[in-house]
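Kindly go through the following sequence and its backbone structure tokens. Advise at your convenience whether the structure tokens fit the sequence:

___
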Amino acid sequence: MSSAPDVDYSATSLRPDWNSLAPELHEALAVALGTRIADVSRPVSSGFTGGFAARAQLADGRWVFIKAAPEGEHAYEAYQREAEVVPQLPGTVRAPAIVATAAVDGWFAVASEWVDGRMPGSPWTAQDFERVTAACEGMADALQPSPLDGLSPFAELFEDDLRIPSEIMAGERPMPPGLQPWVPRILPELAELVALAPEALAGDTALHSDLRPDNIVIDGQGTCWTVDWNWLTLGARWVDWVCLLPVAQHQGIDTFTAITHNPLTADIPKEHLDCLAGLIAAYMMKNTEAPPPPGCTPALRAHQRLYAWTFLDWLAVRRNWPTVEV
């Protein structure tokens, strides 16, 4: 492969239809919502899980967004965690409110406020980048210090991944196919960068920790909403925003200038910012050829390759890595 894979984030999931869910779950949701569910749209096609997710109209005229998954799938615990976290977020964080939850026969469902909008990054535009950047700045202010107790450090999510570059160099792990041909040459420096993670990424801000374009909705008024709050961790206030930069750069946004002027990052050591990019790249280099985890779709692996590629490209510019074959 001579270029990054093309991933259409509006078509990455394979979700069940509403009628395939247990009737008992339908009934439990109606009771929790206090009214009959009059109509359910086709499931959305974004995301990487097989959990049910669709807009629904209630008999009283309200619109909600319903997600549901069976026990044993990743989405089951993810939906439970989101239902727990979102009510604890400050009101200034624009996350769709939880309306109701229901659990029955090994299924869990959560209904949230419906936000009519679109995801950014298809491709990124300068205007959308400004909107999302402002939203990230606002979230960082609202979530520092963390209003939630008991969050694990962000770097702990990747504790087992700090060794990936070193394991590839030692032949203990294969070099993932489909990456830039110069990647083997930069593995020693990548290993040094990711080793900084526990110190470089530490902080007292509650982080979304999985902020991607398909977890952002921009409504008709230009307001940015963030969804899928099931990976909340504690770390540096700039982490969520910087995780968006390499893909935005890949699509033509000048993030190299933005990072030097933005108040989230202007005074942050270069090594710390590069450590985050290196850590995400290393994480995405794991299991790229393996079947997706239970309940996840094959598009997850294409997403990994795209992110590994774009984060490595971003680092190559910042660190002057030689990218031309000699």
Notes: The two ends are 19 Å apart (CA to CA). The chain has two domains: 18-114, 118-318. The mean pLDDT is 95. Residues 18-114 form a domain with the Phosphorylase Kinase; domain 1 fold (CATH 3.30.200.20).
